[in-house]
From TrEMBL:
GO terms for molecular function: acyltransferase activity, transferring groups other than amino-acyl groups. It comes from the Bacteria. PROSITE patterns: THIOLASE_2. The lineage of its organism: Bacteria, Bacillati, Actinomycetota, Actinomycetes, Mycobacteriales. Keywords: Acyltransferase, Transferase. Residues 272-393 form the Thiolase C-terminal domain. The keyword DNA repair does not apply. This is Acetyl-CoA acetyltransferase.
Amino acid sequence: MSGYSGRDAVIVGAVRTPIGKGKANGALHGVKSADLLAHSLRELVDRTGIDPAQIDDVISGAVTQVGDQAANIARNALLGAGFPESVPGTTVDRQCGSSQQAISFAAQGVVAGAYDIVIAAGVESMGRVPMGTNILSGSDPFGDAFAQRYSEGLVPQGISAELIAARWGLSRTQLDDFSAGSHEKAAAATKAGLFDNELVPIAGLATDEIIRPGTTVETLAGLKPAFYNEAYATRFPQINWEITAGNSSPLSDGSAAVMITSSDTAKRLGLRPRARIHTATVVGSDPLYMLTGVIPATEKVLARAGLTISDIDLFEVNEAFAPVVLAWAADTGADLAKTNVNGGAVAIGHPLGASGARLMTTLVNALEQRGARYGLQTMCEAGGMANATIIERL
């Protein structure tokens, strides 16, 4: 990803908190959202050794921007982290891809010459700020024209996941097998210390809280469908009702932060470039199926990069629901053995606004651990969108 001036965008640091249960009994529930983000910001600066006064901007994703996450949490968190008052911050919402979009905006700013050093971050405390609480009772965020265009109405994400499973012919056993594998990989990665380089312990939590070692297809088979609804069953008779809490990402709390600069600036400041942001893109997709945008986003980013699916060494595809990744692999031809090699969101968690930066942090480390070159990250997003980003290890 280079500009007309020849500038590039490189990652020189990436950290994340452990992911906690997004419930009242979760380990991070007592940490306010701004403090959760401030922790990652502070640790990122400490690890890189940079003077925070040199940071041109902090761009943070957050989805439910109300309550503890209102009033531009990026600015509040950076001040809480002790950054100079001269450092600005802004908060973006591209739903689940918010902090992946923050990374794209940051990289674009560096390439364009608008920034020398910028932090892209994300946060979500789904236990303190439940999903959907930013939509007030009686409010209509869609409007009349939208309702006329989609007269039958859209559906919740769980129903979209059911529609995907039905269209791609994915069985409950396939979904549960994939999900058990996610826990197995994440547990193995934790035990082997593969996350140690990216984690910044907080509130006594040193490892991801939600991973369940020993999860099997048999144990997941005992879970009931999570989204069954008689009205939707009538409207969509093709649905087999296979989506459960076990093959969906859980409610989660966490934050992550990535520092981006140019190769020239990194050299001048003595920072080590870890990966180059090669190509980034975003697409819109069918808002009814909602979660399938990862397929055209992957195709688009590969085309723009001049690469093929076989050129990619590792993939990080957000496991919002198991059928999303399985449908993506079926249509793109990607190798599942190279996908979410240290487990995914079904096991680790999906703190909405933080997940894009969390996946990027994990991807950078995984490329380094394996001596691999190219990594591709993509995320489905509410409303029918998806981001895709290719990075190159340096």
